[in-house]
């Protein structure tokens, strides 16, 4: 069953990421904000509105990408070596990395100050 | 394994170098050895190996039996591609610019000697997926008195997967089987699907529960190398994706399967089909009598040599 | 002394372009690229999560000076972004194809009796055309993104 759950996580997050990443990239397209080039979409006023306005989508993107990426790397590492200790170590490291990275990302979203 | 008709029918280069990866268990090490042989049109890699064994080096060891792609014992890696050596023309692999054929033992299998590989693990994995029909009615399964009913389209659903000859080429080509010793491999999983899709089989709950385990369907990432090297077009890659869909449906409690009932054996009608009007019986032949026993053909009608 | 020669290719089978030596198998190449782009993306995105955190720690001034200005014009940072976006485009498009093929078993043809030229149904199915579409589309989209990033 555990193999099935890890695969299901991978498929569901993949499905979400298709939309979330397209959205994340599309927001950097200059005409979206009517600015002259792409770094201008990263200017404080624009970005602050974006982060506070769509905090939910951004955190969903964060969690989905962390789960998908770490689960993918974990699969590869477990394939590389199949000993028991290695499996335990990889699983523990994946869990730790997922928690730390999600925490850092969430911190970015909530601690951002108005420009 | 698609067949390139041009390549398999052209004349191979006059003299071809055969590079063989060898291993001797008593020396405990492997080495490469090159042989030069004269070729002829239609020569296969197996023919070349046999010719080397007969004329050049009789210590070369390899396995084969049928020489015609039926037994599945002659799998080797030819120029980096797992192939049946009896079904690979020299002309496919050796070109006039590069008249060389590189033969290695199958990847991902332990090598016993030279090109002979150990299939113990392969067949253990094959056994793990229960390659036999499971019926709920034990009594009937052990002492069958009835027959299974199966429609032609139900046969088509799994017929393709029954053609497997257990040659192991798919496992040799699989990138996941190469690194993960717990992965069952394309061959075993194709067999799992063959019995899952068989309408005579009632053990789907057991099969699907077992396929949920690690090292099974979810380790496949659809590189589809198994399907591209399979000499019998078994399509293990497609089978694994179908298994995965079945598992998804099973976990969502949606899996349904129509299983065949046991039915009375079909009555064979005793009537003889009428002969076509233009057919004439041989003189002195009694059809009615022949149906009862072995045909008796009058002696004078037999052709003499 | 070894009585038996272990002949497993190991994890490198997932990265070796053995796919190129196999007949009729672009799926293998797609698979290898999927793994490689996945690894690139994990490295990039985790660095991205950590580096955007400077927004919360150091405020907007340093954000504009350090992060945004480095994306203007051609320099190592913007090239890293460009490569990562290309990887994301390929990984995403191929991922859509894999979702349909792996999770739902679509596009892999129907089981059939072998007939010449002996190509397995899953290799003849629509997913094969989808692979080429993925290759072409990701290059087109990547080039378009490059235009927006560097020449807009
Ligand atoms: S599925 Fe094909 S390649 Fe694999 S063992 Fe069977 S016949 Fe050989
Ligand atoms: S010798 Fe039987 S398949 Fe090649």
Explain what you see.
The complex is a heterotrimer of chains A (115), B (305) and C (152). Chain A is mainly α and 115 residues long. Chain A is 77% helix and 0% strand. Chain A has one domain (3-110): 3 helical TM bundles of succinate and fumarate reductases (Up-down Bundle), CATH 1.20.1300. Chain A is elongated and about 55 Å long. In chain A, 24% of the residues are buried. By secondary structure, chain B is α+β, with helices and mostly antiparallel strands. Chain B folds into two domains: 7-117, Beta-grasp domain (Ubiquitin-like (UB roll)), CATH 3.10.20.30; 120-251, Fumarate Reductase Iron-sulfur Protein, Chain B, domain 2. Chain B has helices at 5-9, 45-56, 90-93, 120-128, 138-142, 152-159, 169-173, 175-179, 186-197, 204-211, 225-229, 236-251, 287-292, and strands spanning 15-24, 29-38, 75-78, 81-84, 100-104, 111-113, 116-117, 147-148, 262-263. In chain B, helix 4 (120-128) packs parallel to helix 9 and helix 9 packs across helix 12 (236-251). The longest helix of chain B has 16 residues, at 236-251. The radius of gyration of chain B is 25 Å and the shape is flat. Chain C has a domain at 71-151. Chain C is 66% helix and 0% strand. Chain C is elongated, with a radius of gyration of 21 Å. Chain C starts with 25 loop residues before the first helix and ends with a helix. The mean pLDDT of chain C is 86. The interface between B and C is large, with 56 and 46 residues. The complex binds iron/sulfur cluster and FE2/S2 (inorganic) cluster. Residues 64-67, 69-74, 84, 86 of chain B line the site of FE2/S2 (inorganic) cluster (FES). FE2/S2 (inorganic) cluster binds at residues 64-67, 69-74, 84, 86 of chain B.
């Amino acid at each position: 069953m555990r193999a099935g759950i890890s695969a299901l996580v991978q498929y569901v997050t993949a499905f979400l990421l298709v939309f979330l990443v397209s959205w994340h990239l599309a927001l950097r397209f200059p005409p979206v904000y009517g600015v002259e080039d792409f770094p201008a979409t990263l200017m404080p006023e624009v970005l602050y509105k974006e982060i506070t306005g769509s905090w939910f989508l951004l955190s969903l993107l964060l969690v989905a990408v962390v789960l998908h990426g770490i689960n993918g790397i974990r699969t590869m590492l477990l394939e590389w070596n199949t000993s028991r200790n290695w499996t335990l170590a990889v699983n523990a490291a994946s869990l730790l990395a997922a928690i730390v990275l999600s925490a850092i990302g969430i911190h970015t979203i909530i601690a951002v100050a108005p420009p | 394994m698609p067949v390139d008709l041009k390549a398999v029918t052209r004349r191979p280069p006059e003299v071809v170098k055969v590079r063989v990866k060898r291993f001797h268990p008593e020396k405990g090490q492997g080495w490469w050895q090159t042989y030069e042989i004269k070729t002829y049109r239609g020569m296969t890699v197996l023919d070349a190996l046999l010719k080397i064994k007969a004329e050049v080096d009789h210590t070369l060891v390899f396995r084969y039996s049928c020489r015609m792609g039926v037994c599945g014992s002659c799998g080797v890696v030819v120029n980096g591609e797992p192939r049946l050596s009896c079904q690979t023309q020299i002309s496919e692999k050796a070109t006039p610019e590069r008249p060389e054929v590189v033969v290695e033992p199958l990847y991902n299998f332990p090598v016993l000697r030279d090109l002979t590989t150990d299939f113990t693990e392969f067949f253990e994995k094959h056994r793990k997926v229960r390659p036999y029909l499971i019926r709920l009615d034990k009594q009937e399964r052990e002492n069958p008195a009835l027959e299974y009913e199966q429609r032609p389209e139900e046969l088509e659903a799994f017929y393709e997967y029954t053609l497997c000859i257990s040659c192991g080429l798919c496992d040799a080509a699989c990138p996941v089987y190469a690194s993960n010793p717990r992965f069952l491999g394309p061959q075993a999983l194709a067999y799992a699907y063959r019995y899952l899709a068989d309408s005579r089989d009632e053990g789907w709950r057991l099969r699907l529960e077992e396929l949920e385990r690690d090292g099974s369907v979810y380790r496949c990432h659809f590189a589809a190398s198994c399907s591209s090297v399979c000499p019998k077009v078994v399509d293990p890659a497609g089978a694994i994706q179908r298994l995965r869909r079945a598992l998804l449906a099973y976990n969502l409690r949606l899996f349904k399967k129509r299983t065949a009932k046991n039915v009375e054996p079909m009555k064979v009608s005793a009537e003889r089909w009428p002969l076509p009007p233009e057919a004439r019986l041989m003189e002195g032949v009694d059809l009615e009598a022949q149906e009862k026993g072995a045909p008796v053909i009058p002696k004078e009608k037999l052709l003499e040599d | 002394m070894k009585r038996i020669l272990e002949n497993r290719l190991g994890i490198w089978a997932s990265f070796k372009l053995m796919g190129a030596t196999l007949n009729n198998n672009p799926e293998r190449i797609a698979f290898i690229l999927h793994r490689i782009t996945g690894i690139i993306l994990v490295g990039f995105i985790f660095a991205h999560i950590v580096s955007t955190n400077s927004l919360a720690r150091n405020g907007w001034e340093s954000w504009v000076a350090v992060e945004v200005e480095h994306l203007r014009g051609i320099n190592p940072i913007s090239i890293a972004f460009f490569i990562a976006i290309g990887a994301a485009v390929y990984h995403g498009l191929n991922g859509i194809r894999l979702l349909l093929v792996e999770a739902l078993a679509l596009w892999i043809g129907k089981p059939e009796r072998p007939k010449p030229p002996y190509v397995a149904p899953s290799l003849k199915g629509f997913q094969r055309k989808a692979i080429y579409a993925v290759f072409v589309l990701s290059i087109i989209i990547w080039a378009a993104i490059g235009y927006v990033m560097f020449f807009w």
